[in-house]
Design a protein that fits this description.
Cytochrome Bc1 Complex, Chain D, domain 2, Jelly Rolls, alpha+beta, six-stranded mixed beta sheet
Length: 344
Amino acid sequence: PAVLTAVQRTALLQSRDSLAKRAEKAFAKLRPADTRKLKQYTDALAAERDPSAGQKVFSQHCATCHKAHDIGFAVGPDLTSEFRRAEETIVHDILAPSATIVGGYETYTVETRDGRVLSGVLAGESASSLTLNLPDGVQLDVLRKDIKSISSLAVSLMPESLGVVLKPEDVANVIAWLRRPPIRRVLFEDDPKILNWLNEGGGTASIDTGDKASGRASLKITPLQRYSPRIPNWSFKIRENPGPDEFRYLRLAWKAPAADGVMVELANNGAWPSSGSPERRYYSGKNSSDWQATRVSEKRPIEWTVVTRDMWKEFGDFTLTGIAPTALGGPAWFDRIELLRAAP
């Protein structure tokens, strides 16, 4: 029973036959973490810890639904920035994952007309369908005409009793690994949420699963651009000698086989560079826009091309809060946009 998710246990307890009584009896011993148990796990934080062992535990028990330090799948919140949070709070979240659910990661259960019951995190929806994120990075599109009912649950997809499966030292080691400052921060790879973030501009943005440099999908932009000067939770300091959660380099893949060129703009504290300055703009090919920019290559990238730039060397200190992928004279594709602390 301990390894069942809260969603699975909820479904069993709500069943309309004798299975519900059997489930209630089986789950009776699986109580939320009490003060005594929490203390056992928080006390383990004071002992010597092994981040490498923590990485192995994370890969085995957490990576199906969480991503951290480039390991796992971002079904739930990305945990790369956990080093900012109090360790005792992380312990509580592991032992009682349904106590606090981050907005945007609520669990939905969909019952289809052919009898299937699907549970996952709602990744997107349209007039005709909705998309669920499932463990192991699986995305499932369900047509609305095939849906019998849909409901949100006040429980997490995570097993509520990892305290039965994981020892205190296991949790302590996982937290030690999570709290290592990230050497990179992925800004975009596969996640369709970027379409909601890039909510301004005269062009269009879409997720393209048929043409990609890595992962499952790329970002396609049609002229001229889609952008936002302030994207939620983006406040990345660009520094010469980056500290925790600070960075220096930008790396991305792009292509524009039938365009004049391709460009990306970077916002500093919610502001774009002036049109007459090449600061915080990179382009390859022909710059057919009205803005000055820093040239990466004279040739447009006909095939997927990975670009790495030293932002601090070229532009000095700034705080990255937004981005504008730009297509010059034709469609352009972007993939695996990330910040790095050190040169690759």
